[in-house]
Amino acid sequence: MALRTPGRVPLLLLGLLTTGLAHLPLPASTPRGFWALPENLTVVEGATAELRCGVSAPGSAVQWAKDGLLLGPDPRIPSFPRYRLEGDPDRGEFHLHIEACDLSDDAEYECQVGRSETGPELVSPRVILTILVPPKVLQLTPEAGSTVTWVAGQEYVVSCVSGDAKPAPDITFIQSGQTISDISANVNVGSQEKLFTTEATARVTPQSSDNGKLLVCEGSSPALDTPIRVSVTMNILFPPGPPVIEWPGLDEGHVRAGQSLELLCVSRGGNPPATLQWLKNGQPMSTAWGTEHAEAVARSMLVMIVRPEDHGARLSCEAHNSVSTGIQERGVTLQVTFPPSAITILGSASQSENKNVTLSCITKSSRPRVLLRWWLGWRQLLPTEDMVMDGLHGGHISMSNLTFLVRREDNGLTLTCEAFSEAFTKETFKKSLILNVKYPAQKLWIEGPPEGQRLRAGTRVRLVCLAIGGNPDPSLTWFKDSRAVTEPRPPQEPRRVQLGSLEKSGSTFSRELVLITGPSDNQAKFTCKAGQLSASTQLVVQFPPTNVTILANASALRPGDALNLTCVSVSSNPPVNLSWDKEGERLESVAIPPRSAPFKGSAAARSVLLRMSSRDHGHRVTCRAHSTELRETMSAFYRLNVLYPPEFLGEQVLVVTAVEQGEALLPVSVSANPAPEAFNWTFRGYRLSPAGGPRHRILSGGALQLWNVTRADDGLYQLHCQNSEGTAEALVRLDVHYAPTIRVLQDPTEVNIGGSVDIVCTVDANPILPGMFNWERLGEEEEDHSLDDMEKMSKGSTGRLRIRHAKLDQAGAYQCIVDNGVAPPARGLVRLVVRFAPQVEHPTPLTKVAAAGDSTSSATLHCRARGVPNIVFTWTKNGVALDLQDPRYTEHTYHQGMVHSSLLTIANVSAAQDYALFTCTATNPLGSDRTNIQLVSISRPDPPTGLKVMSKTPYSVGLEWKPGFDGGLPQRFQIRYEALGTPGFLYMDVLPPQATTFTLTGLQPSTRYRVWLLASNALGDSGLMDKRSQISVTTPGLDQPSGEPDYQLPTEQPTSISEKTEAGSEEDRVRNEYEDSQWTGGQDTQSSMVSTTDVEPYYHSMKDFSPQLPPTLEEVSYPRGLTHLEEDMAFPGHLYDEVERLNAPSGAWGPLYDEVPMGLCDPCWPEETYEDTRGIYDQVAGDFDPMETDSLPFELRGHLV
């Protein structure tokens, strides 16, 4: 937006109105040659400006000058990208147009016309282009947008500085919506030429009304459409208003003691809100308060229980905040009304009848004072004197005295002192006493057994004392022979006396005395007293001897000494008879004259004379006192203490049995008095420490305790006992039992096949038992455990297992088990090695290995034999010993148990040199055996053999076969079949390729089929001529049961088929033997003979699973050169066995060396007549189809002989 100075506005409007009018008449002042002149112009930074120049002479060279700098005649003005000339030059329009003006454009401009043929040189008057720059920011101190905290009434200085601007802006301060007049402003030079800043300062005195409002700095400029503003929020601190106490009720300050007083103090206004606290007589009581910031109100609630001592107290509430110049306070003085807290009656309310009682009634302090009055029952008594005195807390004390005469009928009435006042109309304060008028009892007597009645000691006797009348209740007291009767204090003693409490029934009083009679109660006098009155009774008690005592003339006794004992019965009623016995044996005694006895009873005494021996020690001599009338006997005994040296008893144990590593206790059964002073144990001449040791301890009774007993502790232990009277000795044997330990067990134990041998097991054990030896045969099969053909013998610590006519199947691990009853049983493992001559495994009459004879392939020949001891292998080629120093031959020998293997690797196989007959000979000290392996070239696979039907249904047939040799390459199988009478053949691929069983589906019921089985590899297939790979089968009808078939053999050539069946049976027998031995290389059909998956040929992992393919019709032409061949034409027989490549699969050798039991009778293979190898090679070479050579992998191509 372009702005003009106020004086130039008419010119600017005139210029705008004349834009584009080239031929308008000019004013008289326009210079000659111009029809439009530029004028002064004002624009805001960033706007567009245009300076007009209209020339009357078209075609002239026109350019503009800026501050004397010529901009050039080019309308584009290249040096100034924002400048350009606009208008139609033909009409003389050369207006200067400037885009996005900035401060650099602020200058003087003139339009210049160059000399031309039509006119002279012309220059327009200079004009000024003024650029207005608005201020971008205002910087306020304090910081804009913040909150400033000021105190009301104090003066503060605020400054505001504008950013660069042109012209200098005007700054105004606004406080709470009102403009501040006291402002000082200074204009300063800006950061660039032609720019200015304005710094303004204002003095502000805030008031409480400004709290929370804005202080604004406003900057205005011609370059601004609206002023810019920045502000701060004013937080004004000012004192709160005076506190106000809200008193509940009308009478301020008047309150009742015990009342819960709640006073609210409120202070309004103030920033921050007021802090309130309550004081009582100038001491703080509560400093808790709450504030409502929205209303700027502070409240504090005082809750107190008024007490009498609060009378006259001044409660005040103080309010202040951080800017208060002083504390504002509001108070109230309490006027407390309180009753007397207690009433006390002084004097005794107990008095004898017909005498005066004097009492005083005194109250605690009360406000206002109270009046007193007396009541006896419901009768009011007149006081003798009333008084009032000053009390505590501004109250008064009231006192009243009373004197009156008491009578018997007043006894038990309530005497009450009552306080009352108009201030406490709803309350009554009383203190009461029970009047006690004293007078004596009228009669006293005792109820109990009649006097003179005989009572047995221990009898329960009840005496009751009764009295009539009396106040206070008469205290009935019992006496025995002038001594007061009391109950025994110790609670553990039997309660022989039970003294009852005083009981009252109407005007009759009673107290009971219950006695368990004893000797002291005999002829005792029992008296009951009540004041001056008394009553008495006397008891007669019969009792046995109170005490029977035995007196001896000596204390230390030894065998042969004489002992005189005297028995004394102290007192009894009636008299008793005394007698003596020793351990039940009656003794003769002598009577002694009696003496006086206590409890008014009778005494007695008798004596006896004894001769001592060691057997009398500990015996009891008993004195018995018997009362015939009471039928009761009382006894006392005297235990004899005879001193004698140690004597071993008959029950002394002489043999002790213990278990090794356990504990043993050698007991001591000895009699002595005094007890033995020491027990000394000796073992093998060495004395055991009485203080104990790491493995022994001598117990207090002399027994010897051992722990962690070993067999070295076995033997005789000597015990020596001693006391002050003498010594004694004994021998005790310790028999230590320990678990068996095998000392001798020859491992291995060897025997030649057919020989005899003893497996000897010698042990160290205690005890040695006849049947402690046992033998076990270790093996996986249950029948391996049988030892029926072996003889078990034992003698002492040696056991034997005798084997006669040793057989190979008896070789293996045996365990000698010895159990003598002490855990654990001993177990020893021994291996029985049956030595036998080598037996080489012959998978087929002639083992063959196929390899390409291209001098780049390798072949491995496997030779495996069984024998003990270890076998040495030798190799020959065509009967000549093989030179194993030749680098092309490498032999590796492996031994594991009785199984031994030799692997001969031939590198760079050459047909000319290596296609030969290799012989492997296995030798040990007992003999030798050999096998022949023929190395030949790779070829097509041999036909499968043993094709037979395993199951039949109307729609399917289950087949099984034995694969033939794979020709040294992976092979797969295909089934060809036809329904007789139906033209054409169907084919079915066997999946997975390695399967040897297959179910042929899609058949028709009751139909005869002819089935052929073909094997193929990369070199071709096995052909259809071999009768062993053909079979005929008829599916059952729908009404026939399905299941295992009666094998249907082909109708052609029955004789040859029968021979094949027998050969197959022999082959199956041999195969089973090798399958039992886990010989994974026993099949002669595959080149990779060490594959661990061959052990279970009927199991295939899911990764090999493929669904059966539907049968396909046979094409007319036979593949791989079989066209024009007759069905009866025979292919080469079973020529080749397995090939082992150099890169055998990982872990391939593992199953070869498993230790497996071998039967004694392996099949003996007859000597075979081998074919001429040259003919074989020619025959193999002739099998190749020259048209398909390129289909072979490169490494399988070679030079065939």
TrEMBL record:
GO function term, MF aspect, one: cell adhesion molecule binding
Signal peptide limits: 1-22
GO biological process: cell-cell adhesion; muscle organ development
Record keywords: Cell adhesion, Cell membrane, Developmental protein, Disulfide bond, Glycoprotein, Immunoglobulin domain, Membrane, Myogenesis, Phosphoprotein, Repeat, Signal, Transmembrane, Transmembrane helix
Localization annotation: Cell membrane
Family per record: Belongs to the immunoglobulin superfamily.
PANTHER family linked to this entry: NEPHRIN (PTHR11640:SF136)
Name of the protein: Nephrin
GN (gene name): NPHS1
